Amino acid sequence: MITRHHMALALMCALILCSSFFLSDPLLMVLVIAGTCTGVLLPDIHMTRPKHLTFRTFAWLIVQFPRRICAPLMCRISARTRHPVPDPADKRLTHSLPGVLFIFVFTSAFLYLPAFLADRALAGWIAVFLGGILLGMGLHLAEDLCTRKGIFPFFPFSSRAVAGSIRPCDRTDPRIARYHIQHGTVLIVLFSLESEGILAPALFSPLSVAGIGICLGTMVYFSEVAVRQDRGPAGIIKAPSPAKTT
What we know:
mainly alpha, 7 helices, 2 strands
């Protein structure tokens, strides 16, 4: 998906998750949201630099960390295995479970260890932020597997891809807009329940997790996701066209 779709869907998922402590701990909410919005950008190492100063410029700056540090390191490590990746700009590196975990571990070492040595309280807040980063990268993979280019779960150990049938730039396909409406509806319902005090506080955490699960599950279902054959780092994976409605 394109950057604005990633950001909007990830932001709503983070708010859904934070619905159980909207009013009780705003700092915790801010850290989770900031981490999620950062993490959802990190896998897109193929992002091009915008010609003008826009929101995408800041997204591009964030992506330089995995692009210039993590991806080259992953290539060096893979060169010592039976599955070398010669191109550090190959987006399959970061659209995979090994790639996401590598970025998370490297980011954690970069942020958490200095904070832990300096201040244990600060390290606790950094850990919350890192949890948001992991959530954001997971959401990125979940959202991208709904598109025609898909993701590559076990790359470089396997070139198999998991992909759907959505073309993010196709304005005639209403599904992405429906996903935004669905996420927003779940968020509004949970926020209303929180503000009205209808449910017991202990029920909000499992209810928010269930809300995210429903949102992601329906996305995957209506995107016709299936395992497909990889066509290379820049190739489009064939997927069935969405069924026409009458």
